[in-house]
Specification:
The protein is of the alpha/beta class. It folds into two domains: about 140 residues, no CATH class; about 120 residues, no CATH class. It has nine helices and seven strands, in the order H-H-E-E-H-E-E-E-H-E-E-H-H-H-H-H. Helix 3 packs across helix 4 and helix 4 crosses helix 6. The chain starts with 6 loop residues before the first helix and ends with a helix.
Length: about 270
């Protein structure tokens, strides 16, 4: 889910976020810190120490809306996932927050901030939601056009999308504007039901499907020329030709689509070691 249109929510988040800087959370009732051994610290993937990760602040938010430092084990897990993606994809990302309220959204993402629910999700699902939200960060923060001289037919809430924004090439495959699907587009032209919500969720769902279920995505391009174009867009425009050895090639499953890519089973180790 994208954050760009929730400006008031973001303002409140950042005001609260500022309160915890330089201090630890006073009350960790719903987010007890994990004791981390020396072995845990030494086990940090070498790639997780990439310089671009230094700009990202990881935080925990308790049930009482108190912010504190995220424990090292969780930070390491999130960092390893982020480090496997191109550095440019997280160039606008500044804060990643785990919200330990059980009623929190599974994920919210925008240009510089990602909020993930810190409980009731295993590492596999948490990582998948994180990558989906990074997809929003790429769409809104990396591909956006600075030249605002010519407006396109797309808006994200009240925010205009301008000509020259690379995302437009992707949006226009299936969408006439942010609310209207083209009449010539069918369900098999999307990677999931949730991708049919709007062009922004279409982008994020396609992004995470390409990363974590690449071989399955490739097999489904047989059913749709538009889906093939989406695959090629991700491959050539977003990942500079890189493909992932993730997922399974499933020619027997061509006419099925999940509702939500982030709840699909996959092998996290295969992704981290690819």
């Amino acid at each position: 889910m994208r954050l760009k249109v929730i400006s008031l929510f973001l303002a409140v988040q950042f005001m609260s976020f500022a309160l915890w800087q330089g201090t630890l959370a006073r009350d960790q009732k719903s987010a007890e810190p994990i004791v981390v051994s020396t072995e845990d610290v030494l086990a940090i993937n070498h790639e997780a120490a990439k310089p671009h990760l230094n700009q990202i602040r990881f935080a925990a938010k308790t049930m009482d809306n108190v912010y504190g430092e995220l424990d090292q084990k969780q930070k390491t897990g999130l960092s390893e996932v982020i480090a496997k993606l191109p550095e440019k994809h997280t160039s606008s990302l500044k804060n990643v927050i785990l919200d330990y309220n059980p009623n929190a959204h599974r994920g919210l993402g925008g240009k510089s901030l990602i909020i993930l629910r810190g409980i009731n999700m295993g590492n596999q699902e948490l990582s998948s939601v994180l990558i989906h939200e990074i997809g929003h960060s790429v769409d809104l923060g990396v591909l956006s056009e600075e030249d605002q001289s010519k407006a396109s037919e797309f808006k994200d809430g009240k925010s205009q999308v301008y000509e020259g924004d690379l995302s437009l090439e992707f949006y226009r495959l299936c969408w006439g504007n942010e609310m209207t699907r083209k009449k010539t587009v069918g369900n098999f032209d999307f990677v999931s039901g949730y991708a049919m919500s709007d062009p922004f969720e279409d982008f994020a769902e396609t992004y995470v499907y390409y990363v974590l279920h690449n071989q399955d995505f490739k097999s489904k391009t047989q059913t749709s020329d538009i889906l093939f174009q989406k695959y090629e867009f991700m491959k050539n425009k977003i990942f500079n030709g890189k493909e992932f050895a993730t997922g399974e090639y499933k020619p027997e499953d061509l006419n099925r689509r999940p509702w939500d890519v982030t709840v699909l089973s996959y092998d996290l180790d295969t992704f981290l070691n690819s």
